[in-house]
Design a protein that fits this description.
The protein is α+β, with helices and mostly antiparallel strands. Helix content is 35%, strand content 14%. The longest helix is centred in the middle third of the chain and has 11 residues.
């Protein structure tokens, strides 16, 4: 597994959760820069339908067009933030996804922007459940909706379940 100065080996641990805990049916993965503001049960009870993961688009203020080109991801794919994932561990194990994802890691070295997040986006390409934005609210998510949809913005401010500090980290000195 290739690491970078800002992405340690630990970041890849989300790919191993279903194997490390073979007795669980579901798991919630949260990055360490996420705080819970609401009832986590709201995420736990989300219906994944036929999909293996539930994720949220993070509105990270990034031009994903360039990233999709670098990573050979379909243009219509909605690039997701892997900092918050609801995982159907049973389906994951049945389909042998840990090995498949590690194979993607090997095949795409040098052609990824976000390491493990890129691996997940390359592999899942629109084969996931898109969860409501309140499950992964970033500063960019708030800015996006503040400009485009005031009603959603106000709802997110009041009812965010998870706040994800992707770039703006209040615990760092400015």
């Amino acid at each position: 597994v290739r690491t970078t100065p800002w992405m340690s080996l630990a970041a890849f641990s989300r790919l191993l959760i279903p194997e490390i805990k073979p007795d669980i049916k579901r798991a919630i993965y949260l990055d360490v820069d996420i705080i819970a503001l609401g009832d986590i049960k709201k995420l736990w009870t989300q219906d994944l339908g036929k999909h293996i993961i539930g994720v949220s688009f993070g509105h990270d203020g990034i031009d994903f067009t360039k990233i999709k080109k670098i990573e050979s991801v379909r243009k219509n794919h909605i690039y997701f933030n892997s900092g918050m994932m609801l995982i159907d561990c049973e389906k994951w194990r049945k389909q042998g996804l840990t090995k498949k994802l590690l194979d993607v890691e090997i095949k795409t070295r040098g052609n990824r922007v976000y390491n493990d997040q890129s691996i997940l986006n390359i592999f899942f390409q629109n084969k996931y459940t898109l969860l409501p934005p309140e499950f992964n609210v970033t500063g960019h998510t708030l800015n996006h909706f503040k400009k485009s949809d005031k009603k959603t913005y106000n709802t997110l401010v009041k009812k965010s379940v998870f706040r994800h500090f992707t770039y703006e980290r209040p615990w760092h000195n400015q």
